[in-house]
Amino acid sequence: MAELVYRPVIGAARTMFKALDLKIDTQGSEHIPKTGGAVLVSNHISYLDFIFTGLGALPQKRLVRFMAKESVFRHKVSGPLMRGMKHIPVDRKQGEEAYAHALRSLRSGEIVGVFPEATISQSFTLKSFKSGAARLAQEAGVPLIPMALWGTQRIWTKGRPRNFKRSHIPVTIRVGEPVEAPPTSTRVRSPGGCGSGCRSCWRRRSGPTPYAPRTRVTRGGCRRTSAGRLRPPPRPASSADTAPAGRTPPQRGAWTVIRAPGLSRRR
Question: Interhelix angle for 49-57 vs 6-20, to 10°?
């Protein structure tokens, strides 16, 4: 069947990424099956993640049908595009219809994209996964394909201003090996290999891991990270016990400030 909407949208997205000079690094696309159904699961750190997740499947000439919240389909601009690309609306209060729709798509040989965290992770680390993706793969008899994204949060994410400037942002896309769904005789209560598969993709990426971005010291002595102005993870409560005598340990969740040799604070 001709894709009258999906392919032009892909072309527009590629043009936009070229204009922004994004440095997109994709590895592992060979793990996407060339035929047949599969559930593609990814972490969720940006409003644009579905575009980059779909890019990971393009080398195999596959289009991904994403499960997305119903409000996106009601928007006057995104709604017609989402329906034209045959994505799957999800009503969180009545998810049975969306589940049945996704199941039909899988059985007809489509790849269905799922963000099992169900929302954007504002800490940019993996949240707990819902079991729906594993149950879909089990009932349809298709594999789970884990994927990890990094860098997309620097373009547009929840609670931060959009950055559509020519910022040369590096975006990493990693696709993991297929994970077989549990046998149908097993009742799925956990996300199966989704979480471990995504973490494995992260470990395979080159350079620093998402949990420890590169840091540099500015003239004011503050630490700035390569992933944007991210707050470092809070220190454990036990850090107060090991702080040097006469020095107050930093508050939980506060910015870490380090003093660089030879640099004086501006007044």
Answer: 110
Residue type, 119: T
- Rounded to two decimals, what is the model's pTM? 0.74
Copy the structure tokens of residue 239: 């850090």
Amino acid in position 230 = L
CB count within 10 Å of CB 106 equals: 22
Phi, psi values for residue 177, rounded to 5°: -70, 150
The amino acid occupying position 178 is P
* Gyration radius (Cα) of the chain, Å: 21
Cα–Cα distance for residue pair 202/208, rounded to 1 Å: 10
pLDDT (mean) for 60-66? 97
State pLDDT tens for residues 204-261: 654 444 444 444 544 444 445 544 444 444 444 334 334 444 444 444 444 434 344 4
Sheet holding 144-150, edge to edge: 23-27, 170-175, 144-150, 38-42, 111-114, 64-69, 88-90
The alpha carbon of residue 101 and the mean position of all alpha carbons in its chain are separated, in whole angstroms, by: 23
Instruction: Please calculate the CA angle 201-202-206 and round it to the nearest 5 degrees.
Output: 105
Q: Which positions ≥6 away from 108 have C-beta within 8 Å? A: 37
Q: What is d(CA 36, CA 45) in angstroms, rounded to the nearest whole number?
A: 28
- Sign of the alpha-carbon dihedral angle for 13, 15, 18, 19: negative
